[in-house]
Amino acid sequence: MDAGGETAAPATGAETLGSLGETAVLGRIFPRLPDAASALLGPGDDAAVVAAPDGRFVVTTDTLVHGPDFRLAWSSAFQLGWKAAATNLADVAAMGARPTALVVALVAPASTPAVWLEQLADGLREACAALAPGCGVVGGDLSVSDTLTIAVTAFGELEGRAPVLRSRARPGDLVAVCGELGLAGEGIALLFARAVDDAGAPDAARAAALRPAFDRVLDAQLAPAPPIASGVAAALAGATAMLDVSDGLALDARRIAEASGVAVDLDAAAVGSRMALTGGEDHALLATFPAGAALPSGFRVIGRVRAGAPAVLVDGRAFDARGGWDPYADWDGRVG
Amino acid sequence: MDAGGETAAPATGAETLGSLGETAVLGRIFPRLPDAASALLGPGDDAAVVAAPDGRFVVTTDTLVHGPDFRLAWSSAFQLGWKAAATNLADVAAMGARPTALVVALVAPASTPAVWLEQLADGLREACAALAPGCGVVGGDLSVSDTLTIAVTAFGELEGRAPVLRSRARPGDLVAVCGELGLAGEGIALLFARAVDDAGAPDAARAAALRPAFDRVLDAQLAPAPPIASGVAAALAGATAMLDVSDGLALDARRIAEASGVAVDLDAAAVGSRMALTGGEDHALLATFPAGAALPSGFRVIGRVRAGAPAVLVDGRAFDARGGWDPYADWDGRVG
Fold first, then answer.
1. CA distance B176 to B185
2. Separation in Å, CA A284 to CA A78, A91, A225
3. What are the PurM-like N-terminal domain coordinates in residue numbering (chains A, B) (predicted)?
4. CA B93 to CA B58: how far, in whole Å?
5. B89, B156, B68, B76: which is closest to B122 by C-alpha?
């Protein structure tokens, strides 16, 4: 069902959510959304029915709001659909689960072009195809509001395994990460520094001018590609704790430290930069493994779990992201 | 965990989402939310884990947006929390499923008082307790935006039964409804007629002045109490098709007619009024049963399924909600 163009006439730019109405717009969007292999009953009734073969399902929800979470001058519809899927898939992966399905509650201004909504659906579809094949959209809701808002709820299956919590890291465990750190933070810093107009407002032309030189950091920010399949791989390799690095490595490492009652000691050289330590929206997977575990492909060791009061250390010294000792002061100054 | 006052200091009116920050506000809200009996892992990690004993789960999502879906001058926070839960629970019930859990994505202005958010949580909790005991909140997300938006995703279990679809009504079936028809439509018509200021804007004082004389229709609109448990009862009684009446009986009956390839012939006297036929937001359950089935408690017969082109008939004559023959013209004129 991913070839929407074959089953619905292409939208023209003049058609909007308001002029077409919800039913007609849904008719445009649904053929573009990905099927879920786990769907026993897909969209179209009061509710969908999804398979949960081991008698449990994993569920998480995360919302993207225009303004705080994205700016239309910088993000295309395709990128927003992609990011809304990817960030939720990463939360499922961080439990050691395989993503199975999404539902999408979209709230958009009546003036939103139908073609824009189609491109958002394309982004959802392509993110599922690239990051979590078999995962699809089983339901949704479309409403009208002045503020564009995309609320995704994502599901996964644990395939008989225990979920990987934040609270089971043990002294002596290795701390490892899979995925990029700091690139998304570099991307947003770059956009705020160089893709705003003279009044400081986000500017599409200036953002476009940053490509292709800054493709890597802009893509990490605008259309991240978290290592979704590595969540299951980490669980199979015996990960003791895991989470999705969404608010910066230091802050998310602190969440493991506090939930597990341990200190997390990071290796500054292995982490690599101040931005890798504190930049947000990486959606990398941060996990702890028993010493001697064979780490799954893609994971690299960046520290060690130590006994002690819950804290994040860098090279053995207490690290406070809001001031305090800063191992990367020079690098930080370069990106503002 | 439903006695939030015992585990968190009461919020004062001066504290807002913006002044307290997301983490502190979540600390206020979570103790007030209902536990889900089906939660294997509740809020606090990247995702929750919910039991699905028969290897499937039902899922639906519906959003309330300030402006199109509610007005703060008319709805209290408690009522909004209640309605957001109730409307989603009704969609689960309409599949013949028992509601198990909710996730809530709340987007609110930074100026929103913390106590308002607490009252919203109270409404979610009390709706679950009253309408679907055992159903609770397993996760959520809190974001900031100018437009207050509440996106709820609800889950249910089918307990080994087939879901009751819209598409299996058969000629000869009885058409029956459980729950009130038309009251919610009367409520919104009353509010727009008599609870607006001289410029036509929603007015809280004028809405308050309508109570207690109009409690019944205002409550049906602002804090509906759909017959959630009757969804399972209908499935057990052999319902062939069912849906949640959200857009008015005539329009939702048409959905069954079109999905099933039948005509639905409604009895004008049994339906009772024009508003019962066309008013929205009833969240009653409309179902079809084989002739001779023992209807579950609360269901009343309002028509019959007939062979023929998909259509809604009233007393055997084609009914078109947008004009055409109107069996209740006199009554309609009375509420405007």
1. 20
2. 21, 10, 9
3. 44-157
4. 10
5. B76
Tell me phi and psi for residue A217, to 5 degrees: -75, -30
Closest C-alpha among B151, B149, B193, B141 to residue B23: B141
Distance from CA of B98 to the nearest CA of A (A): 12
Torsion, Cα of B20, B22, B27, B32 (10° steps): 100
Residue of B nearest to A46 (CA): B91
HSE-CB at A13 with a 13 A cutoff on CA atoms is: 0
Cα B44 to the center of its chain, rounded Å: 28
- Looking at residue B7, its pLDDT comes to 39
Residue of B54, B33, B227 whose CA lies nearest to B156? B54
Look at residues B199, B194, B188, B113 and name the one whose alpha carbon lies nearest to residue B148. Answer: B113
Count the Cβ atoms, other than its own, within 10 Å of residue B323: 6
For the four alpha carbons of B119, B125, B130 and B132, in that order, the dihedral sign comes to: positive
Helices (H) and strands (E) in chain A, counts: 12, 13
Question: Most B CBs within 10 Å: which of A22, A33, A41, A45, as the mutation test of the B interface?
Answer: A45
**Token code pair at residue A208:** 């476009």
- For residue range B45-84, what is the model confidence (pLDDT) as tens digits? 999 999 999 999 999 999 999 998 999 999 999 999 999 9
- How far apart, in Å, are the Cα atoms of B145 and each of A38, A67, A148, B110, B303? 34, 8, 9, 7, 46
Contact A95/B40, CB-based, under 8 Å?
no
pLDDT in tens, A103-144: 999 999 999 999 999 999 999 999 999 999 999 999 999 999
The tokens describing A321, both together, are 């992201």
Q: Does ipTM top 0.90? A: yes
Is B82 flagged in the annotation as binding? no
Q: Strand B149-157's sheet: what is its strand order?
A: A39-41, A48-51, B56-65, B149-157, B98-108, B136-144
Domains along the sequence of chain B with CATH? 4-157 (3.30.1330.10), 174-335 (3.90.650.10)
Report d(CA B99, CA A289) in Å as an integer.
Answer: 37
> How many Å lie between the alpha carbon of B213 and the closest alpha carbon of chain A?
33
Nearest CA to A242 out of A229, A259, A256, A254 is that of: A256
**Ramachandran bin of A80, using left for φ above 0, alpha for ψ from -120 to 50, beta for the remaining angles:** alpha
Angle at A55 between CA A50 and CA A60, to 5 degrees: 60
Given this model, what pLDDT does residue A111 score? Answer: 95
The size of chain A, in residues, is 336
- Interatomic CA distance for residues A111 and A39, integer angstroms: 32
Contact A47 B243 (CB under 8 A): no
- CA-wise closest residue to B90 among B217, B254, B280, B272: B280
Contact B330, B206 (CB under 8 A): no
Q: In sequence order, which ranges of chain B are alpha helices (DSSP H)?
A: 4-7, 17-20, 22-29, 77-93, 114-131, 183-194, 204-208, 215-222, 229-236, 249-260, 268-271, 274-278, 329-335
